Amino acid sequence: MVREISAGGVVIRFREGAWWMAAIEPADAPASPAGGKSNRAARRPKTVLALPKGLVDPGEKPLETAVREVYEETGVNADPVTKLGDSKYVYTRAWGDGARVFKIVSFYLMQYRSGRINDVAPAMRVEVARASWVRLEDAVALLAYKGEKQMARRALEYVESHSEL
Fold first, then answer.
1. Hey, is 80 helix, strand or coil?
2. Where are the domains of the chain?
3. Which pLDDT value is given to residue 45?
4. Exposed (0-12), middle (13-18) or buried (19+): which is 18, by Cβ within 10 Å?
5. What would the CATH number be for the domain defined by 2-32+45-161?
């Protein structure tokens, strides 16, 4: 089984009296509603939201990857606060060799420093359709993936117990 090591970030920002989190809509998200044919007008597909993340490059540390991926996929710069944990899962590649992959993604809590959300380089649009701020308290319900929901939950617990942020 192939192994992949990735890293990503839960970027938080306090504004309008609440904590907000940077989320991305992957460019490869489903473009049409699931299900069979229908005579009714097509329903709008549910937006897939995820956390910014990517493969750790050779010679790069996971935290460096997380900071880089956050910038590349959201357009914002963020400062690391703490490691939230690792998400581990197995998937089958839908491209190329169709191999089964054991993946570990290390996630870090980061605090917004600068930049504009969704100010993403055109070359990154093959990976990210858009980036936006979502309320951190809503993130668990909005994120598409179980491991990422867990990281958003940990981020919320962290900010609730660390008033110095």
1. strand
2. 2-32+45-161
3. 57
4. exposed
5. 3.90.79.10
